[in-house]
Amino acid sequence: MTPVLSFRNVWVEYGDHVVLEKVSLDVAPGAFVSIVGPSGAGKSTFLRLALGQEAPSRGEILLDGAPIPAEPGPDRGVVFQRYSVFPHMTVLQNVMFGARCDQAPLTGLLIGSARRKAKAEAMAILDQVGLAASVKVFPRALSGGMQQRLAIAQALITRPRILLLDEPFGALDPGVRLDMHELITGLWREHGLTILMVTHDIKEAFKLGTRVIAVDKRRHDPHAPHRYGSTAVYDFPLDDKMKTAIPKEIAALTGATEA
Amino acid sequence: MRRLLNARPRGGGRLLLGLLPIAILVLLYLVASQARHAENPRDKILPTPAAMAESMQIMALQRDPRTGEIPLVADTKASLTRLGIAVGAAAATTLVLGLSIGLLPYARAGLGPLVATISVIPPIAVLPILFIVFGLGETSKIVLIFVGIAPFMVRDLASHVAAIPEEQIVKAQTLGASTWLVALQVALPQAMPRLIDSVRFSLGPAWVFLISAEAIASDVGLGYRIFLVRRYLAMDIILPYVAWISLLAVIIDLALLTWSRTAFRWAHAPGGRR
């Protein structure tokens, strides 16, 4: 089976500063890959690369076997920790935005049956994420958790090949976070999504992921901290048994305080 | 004892507090005017309200035998037309340039330095150039206002658009939006409330440039009239004219604010420190 996303010997360097080195990684269809690692290890660089916001200095990144376009596109959906919904659109308009871009590239406005169809689809997804009751409000009136539900619904409407999550639940209260875990797991199963999630919460990584990848520096030169970059130091495919116990190496790596 | 910082006037008290200084100023004027008139009944510097009302009746109700028009109406129409065209053109330019510079790195690199340079030129200093190039007619007055306010407005809007979180722009692209749709559907609606605010702030300078231009070369307009009657020390006309200009400014400002509040409800947070 062709991997949805693959990194082939990817390096990211800014002059002498090596951020990522020698990263090779295949994301299989239907996988839920969690990426964990200490702050500043380059976790988010993975997502920037996958989005096309940044290009690797060496190596290549493939989407369904073909090199990814060098800019964001509808084949890769994204949910950021914050600011990923449009404050000037209502909840419904936010979710319909994908359909509007797709079907009305000139005006961004839908009319008649196209509008009705897009609205019905948007309503169905909003219902799944539990926002059907607040379609007419602006995001400002929603809580943090609700805004993230909206951001997820908005990303799903274009049926992306892969959904990229950048610390999506990092700013939420613990209770709300648990609800969101349930929601994203449900959506992942139901829609058969392929997900790449960056998180600093190691418990979250193991609870949600089918595979956990830890990113850190393999070598460290105290006199030249930027000499060596991070790479995938551990790669755990998880069966259900593993989900309860976090391997010691990873717990040590990311620090018990964050767990 | 509560800190002064935390003591807040409420309801009617607040209104009264706001009216108090205005009432004091009016009273001071009346007393001073009265005193001057007691000494010299033909005083022109501080005219009585009755004298102002009488002069304004001539200006606002009677046709000028030379032009056949009512002076106040003709002046207001001329000034507001100049102001409207200039501010409208500045707002339209700002929208196009501000969005481009704010969104597109190429536009920022190409136009940013030019706009920054133009915005440091004192507009009144180029007025002679405008008179030479465009003549003494309407064009030079409109261009003066435009040159006076547009560079500032462009820079303000460009920095506002550039401050739209990167996340939003990336998200829009992952939803399939082209550069055009990001500009039209993401940046433009978020720029509009800021543009309206920017127009509101620019109206102050715009009036200054309008009145300056009218004072120097014009045959009709609110600024022209004030400077014309100044030769006769006609404070009984100047003061009501200044009040009328201020009233127009307040009305325009309120209209813009109301438009922004109704059309861009999402941008106006309820509550917040006022």
Please describe what this structure looks like.
The complex is a heterodimer of chains A (259) and B (274). By secondary structure, chain A is α/β, with parallel strands linked by helices. The model of chain A has no long low-confidence stretch (mean pLDDT 85). Chain A is built from seven helices and ten strands. Chain A starts with a strand and ends in a 5-residue tail after the last helix. The radius of gyration of chain A is 19 Å and the shape is globular. In chain A, the strands form two sheets. Chain A has a six-stranded mixed sheet with strand order 6-7-8-3-9-10, sandwiched between helices. Chain A has a four-stranded antiparallel sheet with strand order 2-1-4-5, with helices on one face. Helices cover 76% and strands 0% of the residues of chain B. The longest helix of chain B has 38 residues, at 179-216. Chain B contains ten helices and no strands. By secondary structure, chain B is mainly α. In chain B, helix 2 (49-61) packs across helix 10 and helix 3 crosses helix 9. Chain B has helices at residues 11-39, 49-61, 71-103, 105-119, 127-134, 138-162, 166-174, 179-216, 222-230, 235-263. Chains A and B meet through strand 6, helix 2 and helix 4 of A and helix 7 and helix 8 of B.
Key attributes of the depicted protein:
heterodimer, A: about 260 residues, six-stranded mixed sheet, four-stranded antiparallel sheet, about 30% helix, B: about 270 residues, mainly alpha, about 75% helix
